[in-house]
Write a structure and sequence with these properties.
heterodimer, A: 239 residues, alpha+beta, seven-stranded antiparallel β-sheet, 8 helices, 38% helix, B: 181 residues, mainly alpha, 9 helices
Chain lengths: 239, 181
């Protein structure tokens, strides 16, 4: 048999790799139907692909390399943060107390949350995927995290989705959703985790945490406690 | 008791940034090691290469905000592999050096040379490093031609040529083996 036509060889490969547009793919198909040598090459390439898929070993990374990217313990602090549970008014305190079992957020965790939130508030707020569309933001996390965070559209209630980013809190990667309410920014940290419910306030920032579908959600913002709680309830209860 | 905000140390911020970078790279660690393993053909050297690459990647991630972390990491791995390779020249590589080709050679001459090389190349391990790299990135990692060009810092036409010749060498080797008496 003759060798495959030189001018078609690379295109036959490209066709196998899905790199041809429809027009060229059609021209190629027409040529192959008339050329035994090119037809044989295409068959050989398909057989080779099947052979490689079946027989080519792939090698997972050894544990020693995984350790290089493993979570590092946070540095110990000389003086721990202590966060009181403080509320602006008795009425808010009463309603919150009814809705939540109040406990202080663990000090180290809230340190990290506040630090992360403040860093993110620098000019050009830290957003990796900027979109107000939950159908853009949610799939963006695929392949970047080992879980799929819930993403809700709360624009009708006045909480606009601004985007998302990856962050690292409490020794593991987390998803962060960024919402805006007028001039206030809410960073919503989501990670799989134990059920915990909490509320704290410090330095003018409010923090609430709640369990949802096997995740722990933590929202931090300079928005007032009542509206932040409203945000949390909506995020938890909306479809 | 409130602590002043300035008590947050610089090293804490570095640790957070480092943790964030690690989280972005971790999903692609297996791909990185697999590529290094095929390029170096040795697990110990592959581990050294990936370790080197991770150090470079973590150091260089300050500006990395968007884009494809996988292609970016694979490019660093690939460069680290080539650096390690040229540091310890293997004799049998030069026999199969894919790039000792006169660019004036026509396509068919290139491919029949591929078939000559196939006599010495029964497996992927025996192929020239550049061909093996293109084949792994395409067949195992499923990268597009454009992404392979990005990772290997080669023009797309060169990527296509390497893929075609790598495949031709393997096909020919199998024909020879299948038809052996």
């Amino acid at each position: 048999m003759n060798a495959p036509c030189p001018e078609w060889r690379l295109l036959i490969n490209a066709d196998l790799d899905g790199e041809l547009d429809a027009g060229r793919a059609a021209d190629l198909a027409a040529h192959i139907s008339t050329c035994a040598a090119c037809s044989a090459l295409q068959r050989d390439l398909l057989a080779l692909r099947a052979h490689l898929a079946a027989d080519l070993p792939t090698h997972p990374a050894p544990a020693a390399l995984r350790q290089m990217l493993a979570p590092q313990p946070m540095p110990a602090r000389a003086l721990p943060w202590r966060l009181p549970t403080a509320f602006a008014s008795g009425a808010i305190a009463a309603s919150l107390a009814l809705m939540l079992w109040i406990q202080p957020v663990p000090a180290a965790l809230s340190d990290q949350l506040l630090e992360s939130h403040l860093r993110a508030l620098q000019p050009g707020h830290l957003i990796d995927v900027a979109s107000s569309d939950q159908h853009n933001v949610k799939p963006w996390f695929d392949g970047k995290l080992d879980f799929a965070p819930p993403v809700k559209d709360l624009s009708a209630a006045g909480f606009a989705l601004a985007g998302g980013r990856l962050d690292y809190i409490g020794g593991r990667p987390v998803a962060v959703l960024i919402y805006r309410r007028q001039l206030h920014v809410i960073d919503l940290y989501i990670r799989p985790g134990p059920d915990s419910t909490a509320a704290s306030a410090f330095r003018g920032y409010n923090l609430i945490a709640w369990p949802q579908d096997g995740f722990t959600c933590m929202a931090i913002s300079d928005l007032n406690a009542a509206e932040l709680q409203q945000f949390g309830d909506l995020f938890r209860d909306s479809p | 008791m409130w602590l002043p905000w300035s008590s947050k140390t610089r090293s804490d911020q570095d640790a957070s940034a480092r943790a964030r970078s690690s989280a972005l790279l971790l999903p692609h660690l297996d791909a990185a090691y697999n590529l290094a393993r095929w390029l170096m053909r040795d697990p110990i050297q592959a581990q050294d290469v990936v370790q080197d690459a991770l150090v470079r990647a973590l150091a260089g991630m300050d500006g990395f905000r968007d884009g494809d972390a996988k292609s970016w990491l694979l490019r660093i791995v690939r460069n680290a592999a080539y650096d390690a390779h040229s540091a310890s020249k293997r004799r049998n590589e030069t026999l199969l050096d894919a790039e000792i080709i006169d660019p004036a050679d026509n396509a068919e001459a290139l491919h029949s040379r591929s078939e000559d090389l196939a006599f010495a190349a029964e497996t992927l391990d025996d192929l020239p490093m550049e061909w093996r790299e293109a084949l792994i990135l395409r067949e195992v990692e499923g990268l597009s031609y454009r992404d392979i060009a990005e990772v290997t810092q080669a023009p797309i036409g060169t990527v296509m040529s390497r893929l075609s010749r790598a495949r031709q060498a393997l096909i020919h080797a199998r024909h020879v083996r299948d038809n052996a008496p």
